[in-house]
């Protein structure tokens, strides 16, 4: 039944999803509702995992906040994601960067061979 | 307008709502069905409509069916099912050869889905009837067995209806009051919150919810 999406014509995955890579440092702009007001919250960190699966796609962003590792899993299709900005691209050799969880300090937040992200790279 | 039709389970996926909530949905192909026979109380003893679903060349049908289906002049069908109708204003315009599409659910919030559940084979009492079973460890020797199935000398037999292991699944099941998330009339597709009985591609009967408020 892989024709399911074709037949449904579900909304396509947002454009940023084809651009992000594991190892990228990104800013996820996420809509947060506080009572009546809505504001944008920025979550900035390294993508340590991308799960592809159509509307079930997710990606995990990890950052160190006040010395504590914080991971957040974002559903790619969520309408609450206002924007995803790629800040830099790290050189990684695996698909899931779980080893970052065991690292401390600078090594846990900055990957080797990180280069600034340029649009035309794509 | 009819309130029920034949369909097929296409699979499951999920959709996001405006507020970011993610809803699991089953995708159902509802119709198109064709009215192949209208049964009337005066003639048949009850009011109903026979629907055909899944177009097949009429040449492929067995001869008695060929004769029956030729009356609607809409070719052959793989599946024929009957749905009840009320002989009142709602059934006006229902006639032989009428095409029934998913748009009949456009104004429904809830629907019922009838299907044949997936066969599970011969299953024990825990899976089949939801018995609690025993503890797995701590020296227990009672794990998944049914336990006592009745008294001894009197009545000296097992009561009828005693829940025991046996063939599970593969039964007709009705899922009531499923929330309709979306209707795509052009494609005869229905998105319904939650699961429906049966395997992918399984035949379903879909009707407007008969119970519960609106």
Structure write-up:
The complex is a heterodimer of chains A (122) and B (214). Chain A is mostly beta strands and 122 residues long. Chain A has helices at residues 4-8, 106-109, and strands at 24-34, 37-51, 58-65, 68-75, 81-89, 115-116. Chain A has a six-stranded antiparallel beta sheet with strand order 4-3-2-1-5-6, with no helix packed on it. The longest helix of chain A is centred in the N-terminal third of the chain and has 5 residues, at 4-8. Chain B has helices at 41-44, 63-70, 125-129; strands at residues 4-16, 22-30, 33-39, 48-56, 76-84, 99-100, 110-116, 121-123, 166-168, 172-184, 189-193, 203-208. In chain B, a hairpin with a 5-residue loop joins strand 1 (4-16) and strand 2. In chain B, 8% of the residues lie in helices and 40% in strands. Chain B starts with a strand and ends in a 6-residue tail after the last strand. At the A-B interface, helix 1 of A face strand 1 of B.
Descriptive keywords:
heterodimer, A: 122 residues, mainly beta, 6-stranded antiparallel sheet, 6 strands, 7% helix, 43% strand, B: 214 residues, 6-stranded antiparallel beta barrel, 4-stranded antiparallel sheet, 3 helices, 8% helix, 40% strand, globular
Brief overview:
Chain A is mainly beta and 122 residues long. Helices cover 7% and strands 43% of the residues of chain A. The model of chain B has no long low-confidence stretch (mean pLDDT 88).
If strands are numbered along the chain, what order do they take across the biggest sheet of chain B? 1-2-11-10-7-12
Give the biggest sheet of chain B. 6 strands, antiparallel, barrel
Measured on Cα atoms, how large is the radius of gyration of chain A? 16 Å
Write down the secondary-structure element order of chain A: HEEEEEHE
Give me the number of helical elements of chain A: 2
Please state the average pLDDT score of chain B.
Answer: 88
Q: Provide the structure class of chain A.
A: mainly beta
- What order do the SSEs of chain B take from the amino end to the carboxyl end, as H and E? EEEHEHEEEEHEEEE
Order of neighbouring strands in the sheet with most strands of chain A: 4-3-2-1-5-6
Overall 3D geometry of chain A?
globular
Mean pLDDT of chain A: 83
**Spatial gap, N to C terminus of chain A:** 31 Å
Question: How does the overall form of chain B come out from the CA principal axes?
Answer: globular
Question: Considering DSSP H and I runs of 4 or more, what fraction of the residues of chain A is helical?
Answer: under 10%
Please give the oligomerization state of what you see: heterodimer
Number of strands of chain B: 12
Q: Roughly how many Å apart are the termini of chain B?
A: 18 Å
The largest sheet of chain A, given as strand count, sense and whether it forms a barrel, is: 6 strands, antiparallel
Strand content of chain B: 35-45%
Radius of gyration of chain B, CA atoms, in whole angstroms: 22 Å
- Going by helix content, strand content and strand pairing, the class of chain B is mainly beta
């Amino acid at each position: 039944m892989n024709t399911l999406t074709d037949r449904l014509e579900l909304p396509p995955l947002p454009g940023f999803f084809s651009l992000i890579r594991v190892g990228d440092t990104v800013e996820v702009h996420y809509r947060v509702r506080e009572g009546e007001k809505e504001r944008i919250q920025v979550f900035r960190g390294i993508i340590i995992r991308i799960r592809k699966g159509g509307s079930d796609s997710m990606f995990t962003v990890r950052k160190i906040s006040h010395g504590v590792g914080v991971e957040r899993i974002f559903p790619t299709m969520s309408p609450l994601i206002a924007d995803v900005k790629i800040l830099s691209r790290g050189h990684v050799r695996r698909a899931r960067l779980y080893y970052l969880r065991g690292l401390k300090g600078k090594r846990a937040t900055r990957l080797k061979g990180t280069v600034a992200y340029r649009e035309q790279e794509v | 307008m009819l309130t029920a039709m034949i369909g097929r389970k296409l699979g499951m996926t999920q959709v996001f709502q405006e507020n970011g909530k993610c809803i699991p949905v089953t995708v159902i192909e509802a119709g198109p069905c064709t009215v192949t026979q209208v049964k009337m109380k005066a003639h048949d003893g009850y009011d109903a409509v026979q629907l055909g679903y899944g177009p097949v060349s009429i040449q492929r049908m067995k001869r008695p069916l060929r004769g029956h289906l030729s009356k609607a002049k809409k070719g052959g069908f793989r599946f024929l099912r009957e749905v009840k109708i009320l002989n009142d204003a709602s059934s006006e315009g229902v006639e032989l050869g009428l095409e029934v599409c998913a748009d009949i659910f456009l104004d429904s919030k809830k629907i019922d889905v009838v299907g044949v559940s997936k066969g599970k084979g011969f299953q024990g009492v825990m899976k089949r009837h939801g018995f609690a079973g025993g503890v797995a460890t701590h020296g227990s020797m009672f794990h998944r067995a049914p336990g006592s199935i009745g008294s001894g000398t009197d009545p000296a037999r097992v009561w009828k209806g005693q829940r025991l292991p046996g063939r599970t699944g593969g039964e007709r099941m009705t899922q009531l009051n499923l929330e309709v998330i979306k209707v795509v009339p052009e494609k005869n597709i229905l998105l319904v919150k939650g699961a429906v009985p049966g395997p992918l591609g399984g035949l379903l009967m879909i009707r407007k919810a008969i119970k519960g408020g609106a």
